[in-house]
Write a sequence for this structure.
C-alpha cells in the first residue's frame, strides 16, 4: 500500500508530498522518518478526496488493510497549507456496541462510554448534520450521555446508529470531502490566500486512546509562545482524555513543566515528560520550524499524533524566524523568505495610548491590530471617494464581502456588526494590515440610514470622527492620542539581514520632520521625495503664502517670500539634521496656487480681513485664478517659470539650510527636484536661476556647497524625451501617480467613482493607481530609463509615486535597473524585506 500514490500507508519512503497530500500528511511522514512514535497512518491524496466528494469511494477493504481489526481510527484534514484550514477531525471511528463491550472490560464502562459518546456526537453533528445544540446539551461523558446520544441520533434520523466500521469510515470521508468543496469553506480559504481549486488530503490514523490503566491521557505541547515568539514551554495535559481536551480541561489540566500554579506532567510522569521534550526539540531541529505537537500517553508511553506549525501572529513569526536562524537551524536567507512582507504591517501600526482617558462607544472582537482615526463612511464607494480626497475614513459595514475589498484598501480601519476572527473583514484586515473590529453587535448599525448608535444610545452619522482600536476591539469617540509602532530587536535584526541581501535602495517620501523621523527609524536610506507644498499649509504660513499669491508685482511678491524664507530654511534645516547626512531630495513647489486659497465665502472674508482688501476684490482674484483643468494647468515647473521668485526662495532656503546642517555636523548635498517637466528647456531655465541663487548664497556666506538637480518624470513627454532632459538633470524620479493619470488620461481624484466597475468588468485587472500598470506606464518607465541613461550612463533612477512601496513595483524597478524606490515611511520596512526577497530569489534561482 505504501506505493499507491492515492491511498498510501505513510512510511519513510511513501510517495507523499505537501502538494499532492497536504501539509499534515507530509509532516507525519517526516515524523516517521525521524523514527518518532507515530500511530499507523494512511494518507488519501487530493485526487482521492476529490473523487470521494464526487461519490467515487476508494476500496474500503484496501484502505482498512493496514489496520488491525477492531482498531479505532480517526480522520484529520490535510490541506496543502495548514493555514487554509479544513473540516474538523473526527475521532474514535469504529466505535460501536460490540467494541463498547470489549473496551468496557479493558478500560471500564465509563471510559468506553465516553469514547463512544464522543464519536456519536461528532458523527451526528459533522456527518449526519443533526442539530449541534441537541448533542451539546447531552454532553460526551459517561454512560448516561452515550445512551442519550444514541437515542437522540435514532430519533432524529429514524435509523439506528451505524455499526459497521467500514460504513462509518466511508461516511466520515464523504462528509469531510464534501465539506471542503462547499461554498462557504471555499470562500473562507480563498480569503486566506488559497486558490479556488485548492486540494484537501485526509489522514486516517489508528487511535492512541488516551484512556485506560496506567498513566493515560492527551495533551498539546509547543516550545514557544505564539503571541511573542519567545521561548516558552507551553501546553497542557489531561489524564484520561482525548484530542485537544487538555486545552479546555480547566483546572484539571496539568501544566507540562513543574509550575507553582499547580500539578504538572513533569511530576506525574517524569519519563514521558522527558521524552516529550526530546521529541519536540528534535522536531524543531529537523522540521526546521516551531511545531505544536498533539500527543497521547498510553500507560506512560508517548505517541505523537500530529504536528502543526505553531499558530502565530506576525510579531511572533518574525521572532521565530530570527531565532531559528540564530540557532543555525535555518539560514538567514530562509528566515527572510519566511516572512511575507505585508505581515510586517501588523508590527508597524499605531496603537491607542491607553494611559489616556478614552470615550468608548462600543466594543467588538479585536480582529486586526492597530488603531486609526477617521470619518465614518458606510460603503466601499464612499471609502474610495474619501481616499481620493485624501481624507481618512473608517468603513462601517454590517459585514464585508469581496466587493468591499477596494473600499477596505481605501479606508484606515474597518468596523463590522457581524463576524468573528475568521470572518471576511477580519481575515482581509489582518492580511493587509488594516485595523479591524468585527462583531460589534452591541452597537446598532443602520447602514441605509447611515447611522451608527453606540451602546449608550449616542448616534454617529456619516462624516463623524471615530477612532477604531483593532488591538483591543474598541470603538472610541473622536480623535484620540495614538502611539507610534514600537519595533523589537528581532524585527530590527531581520531587516538588518534584509539590507545585506537587497540590491536596490529604499528611501522614504517624507514632508515633515515627523515623517523624516519615522523614515529614519525604519532605516530608510534617505528621503526620496519631500513635497514642499505641505509645509505651507500650516496656519502661520498660509496667510503669508496667500499674500505672496495676491502680490500685484514682483517686488511685493519678493517681500512676502522674504517672510517665508526663514520658515522654509528652518524646515529644511530640521529635515537635514534629522536625516543626519543621508540624502534628501526636495521637490520644488508643485500644486496650482489656487489650492492655497480659500474656496468658500467665509474663507474669502477672512482673507480680505487678513490682507486688508475689499471682499469683492478677493473674490474676483480667487475666481480669476480658477482653471478649467488645474491638474494640467499652471502648476509644477510651469509655475516655476511663470513666477520664478517662488523657486528662488525655495532653493535659497535649501542652500542656507545645507550650510547650517554642515556647520552642525550633518553635511549634505541637497537634491533639488523639478516637478511636472515636459521639455528640456524648462529644466535649463530653472537651472540657470538656481545657479544664480547658488552663486549669490556662496558670495554672501563664503561657504562652499554643492547640489544635485533632477527631474520628476510624471508627464509622458518627459519619459519620451528623457534623453534630452538627462543632459541637464543628474537624476530622474518617476512620479507614477501623475504619470499614471496622464498616461491613461484618468483623473486620480475622480477615478474612484467608476474604478470598482472597471475592475469588476475586467477593463483593468487592478486599479492602476494602486498596482503599477506595467504594460503601459511601465513601458514609459523603461523607455525613460533607457533614454535617460543613453545620455548619462550614471543617471540615478528612482520611483517615488505611491506604487514605490509595493513588492511588485519594486520587482519592476529592480529589473529595470533603478537605483532606488521611495515610499511612505511606514512602507519602508515592507519594501526592505520585499527587495531582499527578490534578490535572494534571484541568487537561489
Ligand atoms: C507623483 O505624481 O507620482 C508624485 C509622487 O507626486 P504627487 O503625488 O505629489 O503628485
Ligand atoms: Mg505628481
Amino acid at each position: 500500500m505504501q506505493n499507491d500514490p492515492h491511498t498510501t500507508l505513510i512510511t519513510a519512503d511513501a510517495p507523499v508530498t505537501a502538494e499532492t497530500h497536504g501539509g499534515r500528511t507530509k509532516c507525519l511522514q517526516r515524523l516517521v522518518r525521524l523514527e518518532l512514535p507515530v500511530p499507523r497512518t494512511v494518507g488519501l491524496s487530493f485526487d482521492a478526496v476529490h473523487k470521494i466528494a464526487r461519490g467515487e469511494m476508494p476500496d474500503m477493504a484496501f484502505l482498512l488493510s493496514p489496520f488491525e481489526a477492531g482498531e479505532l481510527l480517526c480522520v484529520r484534514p490535510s490541506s496543502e497549507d495548514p493555514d487554509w484550514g479544513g473540516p474538523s477531525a473526527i475521532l474514535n471511528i469504529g466505535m460501536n456496541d460490540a467494541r463498547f463491550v470489549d473496551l468496557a472490560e479493558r478500560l471500564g464502562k465509563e471510559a468506553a462510554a465516553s469514547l463512544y459518546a464522543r464519536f456519536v456526537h461528532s458523527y451526528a453533528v459533522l456527518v449526519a448534520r443533526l442539530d449541534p445544540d441537541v448533542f451539546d446539551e447531552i454532553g460526551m461523558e459517561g454512560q448516561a450521555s452515550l445512551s442519550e446520544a444514541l437515542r437522540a441520533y435514532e430519533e432524529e434520523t429514524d435509523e439506528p446508529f451505524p455499526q459497521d466500521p467500514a460504513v462509518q469510515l466511508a461516511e466520515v470521508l464523504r462528509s469531510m470531502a464534501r465539506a471542503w468543496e462547499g461554498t462557504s469553506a471555499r470562500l473562507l480559504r480563498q480569503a486566506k490566500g488559497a486558490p479556488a481549486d485548492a486540494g484537501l488530503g485526509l489522514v486516517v490514523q489508528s487511535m492512541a486512546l488516551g484512556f485506560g490503566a496506567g498513566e493515560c491521557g492527551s495533551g498539546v505541547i509547543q516550545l514557544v509562545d505564539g503571541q511573542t515568539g519567545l521561548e516558552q514551554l507551553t501546553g497542557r495535559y489531561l489524564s484520561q482524555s482525548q484530542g485537544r481536551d487538555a486545552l479546555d480541561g480547566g483546572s484539571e489540566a496539568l501544566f507540562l513543566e513543574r509550575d507553582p500554579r499547580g500539578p504538572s506532567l513533569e511530576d506525574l510522569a517524569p519519563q514521558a515528560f522527558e521524552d516529550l521534550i526530546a521529541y519536540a526539540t528534535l522536531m524543531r531541529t529537523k522540521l526546521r520550524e516551531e511545531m505544536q505537537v498533539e500527543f497521547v500517553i498510553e500507560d506512560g508511553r508517548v505517541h505523537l499524533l500530529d504536528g502543526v506549525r505553531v499558530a502565530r501572529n506576525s510579531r511572533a513569526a518574525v521572532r521565530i524566524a530570527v531565532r531559528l536562524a540564530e540557532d543555525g537551524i535555518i539560514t538567514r536567507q530562509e528566515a527572510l523568505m519566511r516572512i511575507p512582507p505585508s505581515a510586517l504591517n501588523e508590527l508597524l501600526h499605531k496603537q491607542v495610548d491607553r494611559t489616556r482617558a478614552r470615550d468608548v462607544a462600543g466594543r467588538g472582537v479585536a480582529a486586526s491590530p492597530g488603531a486609526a482615526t477617521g470619518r465614518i463612511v458606510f460603503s466601499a464607494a464612499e471609502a474610495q471617494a474619501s481616499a481620493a480626497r485624501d481624507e481618512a475614513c473608517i468603513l462601517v459595514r454590517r459585514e464585508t464581502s469581496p466587493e468591499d475589498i477596494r473600499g477596505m484598501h481605501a479606508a484606515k480601519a474597518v468596523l463590522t456588526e457581524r463576524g468573528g476572527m475568521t470572518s471576511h473583514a477580519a481575515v482581509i484586515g489582518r492580511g493587509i494590515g488594516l485595523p479591524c473590529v468585527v462583531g460589534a453587535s452591541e452597537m446598532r448599525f443602520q447602514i441605509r440610514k447611515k447611522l451608527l448608535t453606540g451602546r449608550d444610545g449616542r448616534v454617529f452619522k456619516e462624516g463623524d470622527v471615530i477612532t477604531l482600536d483593532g488591538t483591543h476591539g474598541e470603538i472610541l469617540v473622536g480623535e484620540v492620542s495614538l502611539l507610534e509602532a514600537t519595533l523589537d530587536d528581532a524585527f530590527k535584526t531581520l531587516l538588518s539581514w534584509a539590507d545585506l541581501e537587497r540590491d536596490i535602495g529604499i528611501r522614504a517620501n517624507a514632508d515633515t520632520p515627523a515623517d523624516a523621523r519615522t523614515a529614519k527609524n525604519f532605516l530608510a536610506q534617505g528621503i526620496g521625495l519631500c513635497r514642499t507644498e505641505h509645509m505651507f499649509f500650516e496656519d502661520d504660513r498660509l496667510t503669508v503664502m496667500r499674500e505672496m499669491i495676491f502680490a500685484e508685482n514682483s517686488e511685493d511678491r519678493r517681500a512676502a517670500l522674504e517672510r517665508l524664507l526663514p520658515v522654509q530654511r528652518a524646515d529644511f534645516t530640521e529635515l537635514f539634521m534629522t536625516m543626519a547626512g543621508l540624502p534628501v531630495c526636495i521637490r520644488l513647489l508643485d500644486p496650482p496656487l489656487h489650492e492655497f486659497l480659500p474656496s468658500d465665502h467665509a474663507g474669502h472674508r477672512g482673507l480680505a480681513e487678513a490682507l486688508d482688501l475689499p471682499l469683492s476684490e478677493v473674490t474676483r482674484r480667487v475666481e480669476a485664478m480658477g482653471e478649467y483643468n488645474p491638474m494640467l494647468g499652471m502648476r509644477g515647473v510651469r509655475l516655476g517659470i511663470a513666477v520664478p521668485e517662488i523657486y528662488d526662495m525655495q532653493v535659497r532656503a535649501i542652500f542656507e539650510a545645507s550650510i547650517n546642517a554642515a556647520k552642525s555636523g550633518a553635511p549634505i548635498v541637497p537634491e533639488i527636484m523639478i516637478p511636472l517637466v515636459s521639455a528640456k528647456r524648462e529644466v535649463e531655465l530653472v537651472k540657470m536661476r538656481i545657479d544664480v541663487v547658488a552663486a549669490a548664497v556662496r558670495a554672501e556666506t563664503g561657504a562652499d556647497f554643492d547640489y544635485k538637480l533632477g527631474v520628476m518624470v510624471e508627464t509622458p513627454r518627459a519619459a519620451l524625451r528623457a534623453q534630452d532632459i538627462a543632459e541637464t538633470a543628474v537624476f530622474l524620479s518617476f512620479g507614477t501617480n501623475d504619470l499614471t493619470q496622464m498616461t491613461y488620461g484618468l483623473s486620480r481624484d475622480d477615478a474612484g467613482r467608476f474604478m470598482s466597475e472597471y475592475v469588476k468588468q475586467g477593463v483593468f485587472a487592478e486599479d492602476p493607481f494602486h498596482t503599477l500598470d506595467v504594460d503601459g506606464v511601465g513601458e514609459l518607465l523603461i523607455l525613460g530609463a533607457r533614454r535617460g541613461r543613453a545620455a548619462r550612463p550614471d543617471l540615478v533612477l528612482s520611483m517615488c509615486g505611491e506604487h514605490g512601496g509595493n513588492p511588485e513595483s519594486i520587482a519592476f524597478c529592480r529589473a529595470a535597473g533603478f537605483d532606488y524606490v521611495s515610499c511612505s515611511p511606514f512602507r519602508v520596512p515592507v519594501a526592505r524585506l520585499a527587495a531582499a526577497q527578490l534578490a535572494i530569489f534571484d541568487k537561489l534561482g
Remarks:
- The mean pLDDT is 91.
- The pocket of magnesium ion (ligand 2) is lined by residues 714, 735, 737-738 (CB under 6 Å).
- The two ends are 36 Å apart (CA to CA).
- The chain has four domains: 7-206, 217-312, 351-483, 502-530+577-590+631-844.
